[in-house]
Amino acid sequence: MNITLLQTDLYWHDPVANRAMLEERIFTLPEPTDLIVLPEMFTTGFTMDARAVAEPMNLTTFRWLRQMAAQTGAVVTGSYVVRENNGFYNRLIWMQPDGVYDVYDKRHLFRMAGEDGVYTAGTQRIVKEWKGWRICPLVCYDLRFPVWSRNVNEPAQEYAYDLLLYVANWPAARRNAWNVLLQARAIENLSYVAGVNRVGHDSNQHNYTGDSALIDFKGDVLFRHSDTEVTHQQTLSLTDLRTFRAHFPAHLDADQFTIHQS
């Protein structure tokens, strides 16, 4: 699978400018790709002013994602602010080239910024099949909670996914946690992990250093880029992943338990 990571600065509360900027970068990719990953809240930056920027489903950004996927032949994914049923969601859209889509609402809302008081938390994780891969997309603060990203289908004790994605607006003040936890999630889940973060400053004076990365199933860093915008494409090997898992089946010793929703 060829995966494309778009690490970029974002225009504050300006969906038109952000979509135009990302569209230009998508249409100038140097080679075809299977999966394009955008940052968290890619139309606005990480904002608590949901009422000012939220869109209903099937409106401008949703249709833009559908167009980008159709024209590139790739899945395009990232999160933006959605208004639905009188609530607001930090919602990741998984958009396929044929227009088939799925959604993941961020489960762990960042209380230190008041996100839990503005947005409604998701309750269901998704795992998508694409080009023979099983892919689990999550959002930013989810990275800190290993149970939610656990890579075991119980009770069969089988792998749930092959690639774990995190889209983020993760600030520079906690960049060490971002870097360490991406590697930890890869090691403990015997999975590739991709993290896509933004760079620049937002209107709340938070600084972002990016550190978007690709980590392999052994925890080795295949790619990491800091401080500046970058478009990175890389081909991942499902054969290498399966070979390593066959020789190191640690998932068979995983503890069994169930998550109870409150």
Outline the secondary-structure elements:
Layout: E1 2-7, H1 15-27, E2 35-37, H2 50-53, E3 55-56, H3 60-72, E4 75-84, E5 87-95, E6 101-105, E7 128-130, E8 133-139, E9 163-167, H4 175-189, E10 192-196, E11 199-201, E12 207-215, E13 221-226, E14 230-235, H5 238-247
Helix pairs in contact: 1-3
List the defining traits of the structure above.
seven-stranded mixed sheet; alpha/beta; Nitrilase/N-carbamoyl-D-aminoacid amidohydrolase; globular; 5 helices; 262 residues
What does this structure look like?
- By secondary structure, this protein is α/β, with parallel strands linked by helices.
- The protein has a single domain, classed as Carbon-nitrogen hydrolase (Nitrilase/N-carbamoyl-D-aminoacid amidohydrolase).
- Helices cover 21% and strands 30% of the residues.
- It contains five helices and 14 strands.
- It has helices spanning 15-27, 50-53, 60-72, 175-189, 238-247; strands at 2-7, 35-37, 55-56, 75-84, 87-95, 101-105, 128-130, 133-139, 163-167, 192-196, 199-201, 207-215, 221-226, 230-235.
- Strands 1, 2, 3, 4, 5, 6 and 14 form a seven-stranded mixed beta sheet that branches.
- The longest helix is centred in the C-terminal third of the chain and has 15 residues, at 175-189.
- It is globular.
- The relative contact order is 0.16.
The best one-word shape is globular
Helix content: 10-25%
Following the backbone from N to C, one meets helices and strands in this order, namely EHEHEHEEEEEEHEEEEEH
Per CATH, which architecture?
A: 4-Layer Sandwich
From the alpha-carbon coordinates, what is the Rg to the nearest angstrom? 17 Å
Structural class: alpha/beta
Low-confidence stretches: none
Oligomer: single chain
